[in-house]
Amino acid sequence: MKQFAVSLAAIVTISVAPAAFGASHGDDMTMMSPGIVIPSMDSSRGRLLFASKGCVVCHSINGVGGVDASMLDAEFMDLPMNPFDFAARMWRGAPFMIEAQEDELGYQIDLTGQELADIIAFVHDPDEQEKFSESDIPEELEELMEHQEEEAHD
């Protein structure tokens, strides 16, 4: 009887999990299999995050941004794109990126899975990248980048 109760509880949990998941996480994610979700990828949100989170301090798109790390123009990205491969490349570079972030920004950039998904979408979307300009860079980061550029010329 105890085994039946455990099995029934598991069946109920599995059958209501997608509905409960949607209620708690919104409709921006796709349930791939029980317990695994893939967030939607929004390149326009990614454009704003690329600048506001500070990626632009080291990376450039359309010639806008830093030169300390690789350019992330869509024309240089692999297509079709596997976002897990992109994240794996970031993971391999994490020690260097963390050190650079702490040196350049004074802190380590913190990204949620959704934010990373949106940034990856932006990095692979040439149409959204055409919209990217210096006006997307927050003033405090723009001042930091200008200061760093001045120091490099001294």
From TrEMBL:
Q: Does the keyword Transport apply?
A: no
UniProt biased composition (Basic and acidic residues): 144-154
Cleavable signal peptide: 1-19
| Family annotation (PROSITE patterns) | CYTC
According to the record, the segments passing through the membrane are none
Q: Which InterPro entries does this chain map to?
A: Cyt_c-like_dom, Cyt_c-like_dom_sf
Which top-rank group of organisms is this from? Bacteria
Q: Tell me any Pfam family this protein matches.
A: Cytochrom_C
Region annotation Disordered: where it falls in the sequence: 128-154
Which Gene Ontology terms cover its molecular function? Answer: electron transfer activity; heme binding; metal ion binding
User: Which keywords accompany this UniProt record?
Assistant: Heme, Iron, Metal-binding, Signal
Q: Where is the Cytochrome c domain?
A: 41-127
* Descriptive protein name: Cytochrome c
User: What organism does this protein naturally occur in?
Assistant: Cribrihabitans marinus
